[in-house]
């Protein structure tokens, strides 16, 4: 029962973070789940893999409603979406397989270094030069593959990289966010399936797991996040963009350092 309460509280944080910062939730879910799984007696390797995999499974639900809303609002760049998704799906599935083969502590270090790099990018972001255009489809697919692999390895939806990439190509921010939301659903599904396949037959997994996906955590987090995401979105609309960017960067540094320290 106490574990379920933790999952619900994590879901509240995921929903707020998703609405406030536009993140899929993995940056919050993975650090929260790790100590919970450790307290349940899971080994470091298994705990990290289950945390990353379960994070991806929660992203499927939390981003689906966002993608649907953006589709209705016309905030999706249709010409780029198929090429981006094709690379993201392949990369995310491959990233899950790579993550499953990497020791848990090494994956923690990769995760920590990754989010600190994101923090630096957030802090140093500047104006996009005028005249930028969408690269050719093969380039978009290739970039999608790289982003998907990273997302699959560290258990995030990929929005932290998709949005900056689209903005760099000249896509206006609201459409970059909408296209990212639609893409994230596919990334999370592919990554989730990848971790299910990779975890088949793995010893030491908790009950109620399918591969590396631990359903009690997924259910508790998604249930709470659905209700708190709108509140986060309202908060985001009232805060200056500069404040949001710096707050997000500070949050990433804290999470990254915690993961690096272990």
| Gross morphology | globular
Question: Order of strands across the widest beta sheet?
Answer: 1-2
> Between the first and last Cα atoms, what is the distance in angstroms?
26 Å
Number of strands: 2
Count up the helices.
10
| Mean pLDDT over all positions | 81
Share of β-strand residues: under 5%
State the domain count: 1
- Binned, the helix content reads over 70%
**Alpha-beta classification:** mainly alpha
How large, in whole angstroms, is the Cα Rg? 17 Å
Elements, N to C (H/E) = HHHHHHHHEEHH
Characterize the largest beta sheet: strand count, sense, and whether it forms a barrel. 2 strands, antiparallel
Task: Give the low-confidence spans.
Answer: none
What would your notes on this structure say?
It is globular and about 55 Å long. The chain has one domain (about 1-260). With about 260 residues, the chain is an all-alpha fold. Helix 5 packs antiparallel against helix 10 and helix 6 (about 135-155) crosses helix 8. A two-stranded antiparallel sheet has the order 1-2. It has helices at about 1-20, 25-40, 45-75, 80-100, 105-125, 135-155, 160-170, 175-200, 215-240, 240-260; strands spanning about 210, 215. The chain is built from 10 helices and 2 strands; from the N terminus they run ααααααααββαα.
């Amino acid at each position: 029962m106490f574990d379920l309460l933790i999952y619900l509280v994590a879901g509240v944080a995921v929903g707020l973070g998703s609405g406030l910062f536009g993140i899929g939730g993995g940056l919050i879910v993975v650090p929260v789940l790790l100590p919970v799984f450790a307290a349940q007696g899971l080994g470091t390797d298994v705990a990290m893999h289950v945390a990353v995999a379960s994070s991806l499974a929660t992203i499927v639900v939390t981003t689906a409603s966002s993608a649907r809303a953006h589709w209705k609002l016309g905030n999706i760049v249709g010409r780029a979406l198929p090429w981006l998704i094709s690379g993201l799906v392949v990369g995310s599935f491959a990233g899950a397989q790579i993550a499953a083969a990497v020791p848990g502590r090494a994956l923690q270090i990769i995760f920590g270094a990754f989010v600190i790099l994101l923090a630096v990018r957030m802090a140093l972001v500047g104006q996009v030069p005028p005249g930028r255009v969408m690269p050719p489809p093969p380039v978009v697919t290739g970039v999608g593959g790289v982003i998907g692999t990273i997302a699959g390895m560290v258990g995030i939806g990929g929005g932290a990289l998709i949005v900056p990439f689209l903005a760099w190509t000249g896509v206006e921010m609201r459409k970059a966010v909408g296209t990212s939301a639609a893409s994230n659903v596919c990334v999370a599904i592919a990554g989730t399936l990848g971790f299910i396949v990779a975890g088949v037959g793995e010893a030491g997994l908790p009950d109620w797991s399918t591969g590396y996906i631990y359903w009690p955590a997924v259910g508790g987090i998604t249930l709470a996040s659905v209700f708190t995401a709108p509140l986060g979105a309202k908060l985001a609309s009232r805060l200056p963009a500069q404040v949001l960017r710096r707050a997000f960067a500070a949050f990433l540094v804290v999470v990254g350092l915690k993961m690096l320290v272990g």
